[in-house]
Amino acid sequence: MPEPSTHFLLTGAALSAAAAALHLACIAGGPAWYRALGAGEPMARMAESGSWYPAIVTLGITVVLLVWAAYALSGAGVLPRLPLLRIILCAITAVYMARGLALVPMMILMPGRSVVFWGWSSAICLGIGIVHVLGLRQAWASL
């Protein structure tokens, strides 16, 4: 049963799970979805040519996001306590925050995606990171 002060971790879990579902939809939707969701033209072309690489990479991201959702649910008391819960929730939060704040470096390191993609994806990651920060603050004593 979730603790009354864990609604931010529950929200963080839901957001990570939604991101995972969107990645699965990208695999199912094929090249058009890779393009629409900003994966970049090379990934879309590989998907178009029948390469398994885009699906494997996207599935890997999906698995990571689902693990992150599970850790947030564990922190909220919905799932049993997972190993290294506090440390891993802090790491997940740090990754979301870093990705959200790294707009310019990401644009430089990974060219070929639109400014709109980088803006939206950074804002989304920053938002999810903030939700996790608030969740950690709420649940810290019970972690």
UniProtKB/TrEMBL annotation:
Residues spanning the membrane: 52-73, 85-109, 115-136
Organism of derivation:
Massilia frigida
Protein name, UniProt field: DUF3995 domain-containing protein
* Keywords, alphabetical: Membrane, Transmembrane, Transmembrane helix
